[in-house]
Design goal:
Blueprint (H helix, E strand, L loop, with lengths): L16 H17 L4 H21 L10 H24 L3 H13 L8 H16 L21 E3 L2 E3 L32 H12 L10 H10 L3 H20 L5 H10 L5 H17 L5 H12 L8 H16 L6 H20 L7 H14 L6 H16 L6 H7 L7 H8 L5 H15 L12 H10 L4 H8 L7 H14 L3 H10 L6 H16 L5 H16 L1 H4 L3 H17 L7 H16 L8 E3 L10 E2 H10 L4 E6 L5 H14 L8 E6 L10 H8 L4 H10 L1 E7 L10 H4 L9 E9 L25 E6 L4 H15 L5 H10 L3 H4 L3 H14 L13 H21 L5 H13 L1 H20 L5 E2 L2 H4 L5 H4 L3 H9 L2 E4 L2 E4 L2 H12 L2 H7 L5 E2 L5 E2 L12 H14 L8 H4 L6 H13 L1 H14 L6 H13 L71 E6 L5 E6 L4 E5 L4 E6 L6 E6 L5 E6 L3 E6 L5 E6 L5 E6 L5 E6 L4 E5 L5 E5 L6 E6 L5 E6 L4 E5 L4
Parallel strand pairs: 5-8, 5-9, 6-7, 7-8
Antiparallel strand pairs: 1-2, 3-4, 3-9, 10-12, 11-12, 13-14, 15-16, 16-17, 17-18, 19-20, 20-21, 21-22, 23-24, 24-25, 25-26, 27-28, 28-29
Helix pairs in contact: 1-2, 1-3, 2-3, 3-4, 6-8, 6-9, 8-9, 8-10, 9-11, 10-11, 11-13, 12-13, 13-15, 14-15, 16-18, 17-21, 18-21, 20-26, 21-22, 21-23, 23-24, 23-26, 24-26, 27-29, 36-37, 37-39, 38-39, 39-43, 43-47, 47-48, 47-49, 48-49
């Protein structure tokens, strides 16, 4: 019994190195004895580590003593030995990182090296390099296989234990079966594949409490699913459906079998037995052996829980497989090997389930005889698998199975392999190894040629000298007569590897009493080879497997000189070498699936090749075929192509057609990979864009790494404006940079949403070095021509078979006013073809029909909802859902649908800022605003299914962006609600005439009387302005599509016009209405409403867009017009006195007239002030918000030729014909310095990038450098023969460039360098 107070952990600073080493050994000795108290043992190890550290720092870090070198070496060896022993203790106690450190210290001090220090260094370097290389560099040659321990195995606790390098399998790893993590679906959500379903069922089957799970995603999912019995049943029924589909599948290829194998461990018992029956029947009834189903049967049995396997079933399966095995003489050795493997798994399962009733006469004895005969095979795999199956068969008849006898020593009752998998973390490995020892001792006998290799050197040497080859060694090494421990040990290794318990695997292999048995070593090497070749294991693990093979091959003293094992390792390494190129993840298979899916997605879409022009400024007749231009771009060295176009112009349609065309011509050898990306559906596309899209289409992480390293892409990025981006996606994703993705980018954006400097967001390179001409181009999609419209109509009628014929549509196109202009937009053309047959009465005069954009959307949405209602009415529903459907229908299904659409559009703008894609997770979003639209409530589901929405996984969006904008506009003003609120009957205007509230002459003026009338009508109808309107809480000034819908409503609905005028009027007295007022006046101006002479005094409309509006003689005194756009606005005789106009945009800035010539001007860096220099010598500074003259100076006596602001905008430098440079304070206008020295006119001045220096160029041919703070001249640079007109300073202030009228430019180093 040890007490913690016995040992002190304080540093012993006064101890000599030898005393400190002695104390270390005391700590280690007591730590070994503290087996029952791991915490105390770890504390003792920590004390030992501290003492060793002191010895190493004090005694071994100094130079060797030349007069006592043997003393230094002896101490070094002792410290090395203690370090190694410390590492073993730490490793045993589970402190693997500390153990690694101790092992490294021991190796540094020469532990067990014996003149091989160079080899150890080389081995260490090899490890380091391999970790940084890709899979193809994992495999070393035999000459590189490491052997760092050349001693015999050490005896620890009475056992013969092999020692291998400490860095091999140091820690446990995540097993490959769980390496791929699939997203967990929402309730009723779509599952993408069978592994995803298997994961869900596995989590449910594990009966885990959500509180015990660390992964927050899994925990949240389980918390939802454990209370949702419907969803649990749905998942189980999906598994049942997969089995039924497999039964109907006549082909039953490898892929189908593999899916069933993945699903088997998580099936309900009845489904599992049904699956076994399907495999059994398939093998039994096939004339030619169905190798795929045989492999599937073997894997299903191997992964099964014992409780799912009946003894009778196993006996029947064994009889079938044994029968097929004995009748497969003329088939390939691969078939025999697979049959033998299946026999092994069946026998394993029979041993686990205590099957003892095997008929010796009919089954056991014939099978034993056949397996024994297979050792004559020339196929090494068959021979080894036959021996393994024979060992399994010997376990079946016993009352106590070999496997159970082994595990009995652990003190736990564990049922079979499946039981071990679940309990492997708690397995008493020492007890397990002891059990193997008991079996080993009981099985030793003279008849076992290689039973216990007591003298490995002699045994194999004699075999080698006698000329026996590989197969002879193997056949003599495999026992077909007794139960052997190696069989049970290998089953233990399989369970540990399956669970990723690699540290325990290492311990079992090194300490198993049968570790020198060739069959055991064969099995271990085979498993190490499987780890090394499996790309799902990480690189470090695979490297460890190869190094472990090297240890067994090279270290004869530890593992024995087994010729068969050495040959087998060479065989494995050759296999690894030949397959090293195939270790890469299969990306081509996944690409083929993606290609097939994307080609099928196109369907029968109507497509007309669009025309485009090169830029927005290009004339409308400068057109070219867009597809040809894009193909030219893809064949060029350019990197980014921007596609611009109006809303509905066909950008997305073209992008999908481009992807379709590229996939059709794609081939592995010649093509880049086309990748269509809907930018709004990607979270933060400015980072890791390609990887995020590949994950969405189910590529694994290893496949993504492979694609990034070796493949090129064509990115087709759709909806830049919809994703509300401001980033340059090409630059933020580091495309075509070293170590990053290799890709060209085609990216689309709506024309309405770009600014003046839009190219900065798309061109490669930073703003100062963008490659405008070499890497970037753009194209603007043109509206359809009449010929294209007609071609589209013909295709549409052929594909969709509408009520009208081609001739009907063409007639409407000719006769309906304004329709011809509308349908030049492809999306509006589609809407028109959809709704015209119901919107237009064939008997009426088409020339009298008025069709507007908003009317088309009204009709389209109504028809969509009516079709949705019909579809749902024909669908089978639960009683509760049917009741909800009838209730919605009674109230008006279309009206309810429109209400749902409006509220959803408003919520998207309010909650997501207009981002069109909604991600809904039931577990995360229950109780949030999203649940009001996407919950499982019957009414919500019905309306959602009927509305024009599309769904991809857990993402929802409108089928077209413009429908979201239409929904928002209709929420602002719905004509149906307006009709309900309006009192029927005529209204008497101030002139006494009768007019309908639905008629409004948009060309008429809007004066004070009209506003008064609006107020009177609102008071009479008790309709105050709606404070909940979207116009109140969000500005839509920069949403042109929304504004277009609303401006058309104004032209049709006078009530809406009156509401907007009320918003403007309210803003005069209450600033909370100013957003609404800015929206309202913007809408009215775009609708053509004129405000000539209107009383708009004090209105607050900051940020409004009054461009092209008519405001002649309007009273705008004291109005808040900050940042208002006034481009091409009519303001003749408008009164703007005391109006706030900071930031107002006129398109063309106000004219500043002056009595004299203006020679130079400049903006301040912050844009707040503007300065001009005159011929008269005067300088004036203006405030740009109101263009008032701040100050004017007359200090220069001659013309001011050049003027410049300092970088911070506080100072201004001016150069004059009076031969001076003057420095001014911008705020006060005072002259701080007069810089004299030039002998002629000063033609140019400029500040350095940091503002510390001023450069001036003169007609005297010199360039002077001045100190800005003091005004002192620092340098005079000569070289030009005539006047210097331009000076530029480099950003780093290291160089200055100057240009002169002497036809030269000069580059000079600054500061006299």
């Amino acid at each position: 019994m040890f007490h913690r107070t016995t040992f002190s952990s304080s540093p012993h600073t006064t101890l000599s190195p030898q005393k400190a080493l002695d104390l270390t050994n005391v700590y280690l000795e007591n730590a070994r004895k503290a087996n029952e108290d791991p915490e105390l043992a770890l504390e003792l190890c920590a004390n030992a580590e501290a003492s060793l550290s002191r010895v190493m720092k004090t005694a071994l870090s100094r130079p060797p003593r030349s007069h006592h070198p043997q003393v230094d070496q002896a101490l070094r060896e002792k410290v090395a030995s203690s370090s190694f022993e410390l590492g073993q203790l730490q490793d045993h106690l589970g402190s693997t990182k500390k153990a690694q450190s101790s092992y490294r210290n021991a190796e540094k001090l020469g532990w067990h090296v014996q003149n091989q220090s160079q080899q150890i260094a080389q081995h260490s370097d090899t490890n380091s390099n391999n970790k940084n290389n890709n899979n193809s560099n994992l495999l070393p040659t035999i000459g590189q296989l490491p052997s760092t321990h050349d001693t015999t195995a050490t005896a620890t606790q009475g056992r013969d234990i092999a020692t291998i390098p400490p860095h091999i399998f140091v820690e446990n790893k995540r097993p490959p079966t769980t390496a791929i993590v699939f997203n967990l679906p929402e309730p009723d959500g779509r599952l993408n594949n069978t592994p995803q379903l298997a994961r869900c069922l596995g989590l449910l089957q594990a009966s885990l409490s959500p509180d015990d799970i660390q992964d927050s995603t899994i925990r949240s999912w389980l918390q939802v699913i454990e209370h949702d019995t419907d969803e649990q049943e749905r998942l189980k029924s999906l598994a049942t459906d997969i089995i039924k589909e497999f039964k109907r599948d006549e082909l039953k290829d490898t892929k189908a079998v593999a899916e069933l194998v993945i699903l088997a461990p998580v099936l309900e018992r009845d489904d599992f037995r049904h699956l076994l029956t399907l495999f059994f029947t398939g093998i039994d009834q096939s004339d030619i052996l169905d190798i795929h189903q045989l492999e599937g049967l073997a894997q299903v049995i191997q992964s099964a829980f014992p409780s799912d396997l009946d003894a009778d079933d196993l006996v029947k399966i064994l009889e079938l497989v044994s029968s097929r095995l004995k009748n497969t003489h003329h088939q390939s050795s691969h078939h025999i090997h697979q049959l033998t493997l299946t026999v092994s798994h069946v026998l394993d399962a029979m041993a686990d389930t205590n099957v003892t009733g095997v008929d010796r006469e009919k089954l056991h004895a014939p099978l034993s005889l056949y397996l024994d005969g297979l050792k004559k095979s020339s196929d090494s795999y068959v021979v080894y698998q036959a021996a393994y199956a024979y060992q399994a068969l010997m376990c079946v008849p016993d009352n106590e199975t070999l496997w159970q006898a082994t595990l009995r020593h652990t003190g736990k009752v564990i049922q079979g392999v499946s039981g071990l998998v679940s309990a492997v973390k708690d397995l008493d490995l020492n007890g397990f190894i002891e059990g193997l020892g008991n079996i080993q001792r009981g099985s030793a006998g003279v008849s076992d040629v290689f039973g216990l290799v007591k003298d490995a050197y002699k045994g194999v040497s004699s075999l080698t000298k006698s000329g026996q080859d590989f197969m002879d060694c193997l056949k003599e090494g495999l026992s077909f007569e007794r139960k052997r421990a190696w069989y049970s040990a290998l089953r233990g290794t399989d369970a540990l590897i399956r669970e990723g318990q690699l540290a325990k695997f290492r311990k079992l292999v090194c300490e198993a009493p049968c570790r020198r048995d060739p069959p055991f070593q064969w099995g271990v090497c085979q498993r190490l080879g499987e780890i090394a070749v499996n790309p799902m294991w990480d690189t470090e693990t695979r490297q460890s497997a190869i190094e472990f093979l090297g240890e067994i091959y090279r270290n004869d003293a530890v593992w024995g000189q087994q010729a068969s094992v050495k040959q087998w390792i060479l065989h494995i390494l050759m296999k690894l070498a030949s397959s090293s190129g195939s270790n890469k993840p299969d990306v081509e298979g996944s690409l083929r699936q993606l290609r097939k899916r994307r080609l099928n997605d196109r369907g029968n879409a109507v497509y007309i090749p669009p025309q485009a022009k090169p830029t927005l400024q290009a004339p409308d007749d400068a057109l070219f075929p867009l597809m040809d231009k894009v193909k030219d771009f893809l064949a060029s060295e350019q990197k980014v192509m921007l596609l611009l176009g109006d809303s509905g112009s066909g950008k997305s349609t073209f992008n999908r057609e481009l992807e379709f065309d590229l996939w059709k011509s794609y081939s592995k050898k010649t093509g880049c990979i086309p990748l269509y990306i809907s930018l709004p559906a990607i979270d933060r596309p400015e980072r890791d864009l390609i990887a995020k899209q590949l994950r969405k289409v189910e590529f694994s992480e290893s496949q993504i790494r492979e694609l990034k390293a070796h493949r090129q892409f064509i990115l087709i990025c759709d909806g830049y404006d919809e994703s509300q981006q401001t980033h340059n996606l090409y630059m933020s994703n580091h495309l075509n940079q070293q170590g990053e993705w290799s890709a060209k980018m085609v990216i689309s954006c709506r024309t309405e949403y770009i600014g003046v400097d839009y190219r900065d967001r798309f061109r490669p390179g930073d703003r100062n070095h963008q490659q405008e001409n070499t890497a970037f181009q753009e194209a603007v999609i043109a509206p359809f021509s009449i010929d294209q419209v007609q071609d589209y109509i013909k295709q549409y009628v052929f594909v969709h078979r509408p009520l009208w014929l081609v001739e009907d549509y063409l007639q409407a196109l000719d006769l309906i006013p304004s329709l011809k202009d509308l349908v030049r937009n492809p999306f509006l053309l589609t809407l028109s073809l959809e709704v015209l047959p119901r919107m237009v009465d064939p008997g009426q005069h088409l020339s009298a029909t008025q069709v507007t954009r908003v009317a088309l959307y009204d009709q389209f949405v109504e028809q969509w909802l009516e079709r949705g209602k019909k579809r749902l009415g024909e669908k089978e529903m639960s009683h509760q859902a049917r009741s909800a459907f009838e209730s919605l229908s009674d109230e008006g299904f279309a009206l309810n649908g429109i209400d749902y659409l409006k509220k959803l559009a408003v919520a998207i703008y309010k909650e997501q800022g207009g981002h069109p894609v909604i991600e809904y997770s039931r577990s995360k979003d229950e109780g949030t605003w999203k649940a009001a639209f996407f919950s499982r409530e019957d009414e919500k589901q019905l309306l959602r299914d009927a509305c024009p929405l599309t769904r991809s996984s857990n993402q929802y969006r409108f089928i077209h962006r413009s429908l979201l904008e239409y929904g928002l506009a209709r929420a602002v003003f719905d004509p149906q609600e307006g009709k309900k609120r309006t009192t029927p009957g005529p209204n008497m205007t101030r002139r006494g005439s009768t007019s309908s509230v639905w008629s409004f002459e948009v060309e008429g003026g809007m004066g004070e009387a009209d506003i008064a009338t609006t107020e009177q009508q609102q008071q009479q109808q008790h309709q105050p302005s709606d404070s909940s309107s979207p116009l109140v809480w969000r500005s839509f000034v920069n949403e042109p599509s929304v504004l277009q819908f609303l401006s058309e409503r104004v032209q049709q609905e006078s009530l809406f016009k009156q509401q907007l005028l009320a918003f403007i009027d309210h803003s005069k007295s209450d600033k909370q209405w100013r957003i609404a007022a800015a929206n309202a006046i913007t809408i009215l101006a775009k609708a053509g409403v004129q405000f000539n002479g209107a009383d708009l005094q004090g209105i607050q409309i900051p940020g409004a867009d009054l461009s092209q509006g008519v405001f002649d003689s309007a009273q705008l005194q004291g109005a808040d017009l900050r940042k208002v756009k006034l481009r091409n606005t009519w303001l003749r005789q408008a009164n703007l006195s005391k109006a706030q106009m900071r930031g107002a945009q006129f398109g063309e800035l106000p004219l500043l007239s002056d009595s004299g010539k203006v020679l130079c001007c400049a903006y301040a860096p912050n844009g707040m002030t503007f300065i001009i220099g005159r011929f008269s010598g005067r300088i004036s500074v203006y405030t740009t918000s109101d263009w008032k003259d701040n100050w004017t100076s007359r200090n220069h006596i001659l013309a001011v030729r050049s003027i410049a602001y300092s970088p911070n905008g506080d100072l201004v430098a001016s150069g004059s014909n009076d031969k001076t440079v003057r420095l001014w304070d911008v705020e006060t206008g005072t002259c701080q310095h007069t810089l004299s020295g030039h002998s002629d006119h000063v033609l140019s001045v400029v500040f350095s990038s940091e503002g510390h220096l001023i450069f001036s160029g003169s007609s005297d041919g010199t360039l002077r450098i001045w100190e800005a703070e003091t005004g002192d001249c620092q340098h005079i640079l000569s070289g030009h023969t005539k006047g210097i007109t331009v000076i530029i300073s480099s950003p780093q202030e290291s160089q200055t460039a100057s240009a002169s009228v002497d036809n030269t430019s000069s580059l000079a180093a600054m500061m006299g360098q």
